[in-house]
Amino acid sequence: MTEGERSNALGALVAVAVRLAAAERLAPTGAEPALQAIAEAGAAALHVTAASIALHDPGANSLVFCAAAGPQGEGVVGLAIATHVGIAGYVFSTGQPLAVVDVAADPRFERGTAERTGYVPRSLLAVPLVDGEGTIGVMEWLDRIDGAPFDLADLGVATRVAAAATATARATRLEHDAEGLLRRVLAALAATADGSEPVDVEALVAAAGADLAASDPLWRLADRIGRLRDADPDDIELAVAWLDALLARSQRRGRAARRPG
Fold first, then answer.
1. pLDDT in tens, 65-96
2. CB 86 within 8 A of CB 175
């Protein structure tokens, strides 16, 4: 990579970072604490030894466990598995919940993955994190503390908890998509180190940013705010005034909606 290419790449990454900073200010995520709270509530609701939440990473096409609770839950956080592996992969791929009484006898169970967490369960309940836009992950419950198998009542509770996890994860999707964007850019930069054809990094960022804009309106706003860093100060003041007017209108609408009658 030449010095000019390196400078262009750095500039592109700085542009992405500015947009990410704007997006974080617009919609602070707190994804992991929120999902952790849901995992803890889910573990308590079903009285299990462990409950966990895994989200789909589209870039790596894997399920990444980002939250867990219960006496045996900690070891799974950070683990990533392919979307076709294990019971979690099966539930993610099919979009169907699954209760397994004896995981050791189930051919879909991946014992090696369980051993990596430090706990091998006897029974398991898995529910997809799914909504109208698709499936974005899986929530699992391992071994009821009383030793009983999971039943239909457990499935009903699990489905409601999973719905809360889905809504939370979907609301914070911008963060995960943005991280994927950065990974793609960095991977493209690394590919230029072997003497291959240089990659147009700015075009790559623009294309990835277009993907984000199509899926999340806040990213479009963050993109525009990111571009303002190079704008004329008078133009920035005009943009601030317009946003103030927009906020005032939204507040008036909110007050009108709350009026009785």
1. 989 998 888 888 888 888 888 999 999 999 99
2. no
- Domain 31-171 sits in CATH 3.40.50.2300: no
pLDDT score at 139? 96
Q: Note the helical H segments in the chain.
A: 3-26, 31-46, 86-94, 111-117, 152-171, 173-191, 201-215, 217-227, 233-258
Looking up tokens 């507040």, which residue turns up? Answer: 251
Cα–Cα distance between 207 and 188 in angstroms, integer?
13
Return the closest-CA partner of residue 173 out of 185, 161, 181, 184. Answer: 181
CA–CA separation, 104 and 19 (whole Å): 47
Q: Does the pTM exceed 0.70?
A: no
Q: 140: part of which helix (H) or strand (E)?
A: strand 134-144
* Domain ranges for the chain: 3-26+175-230, 31-171, 232-261
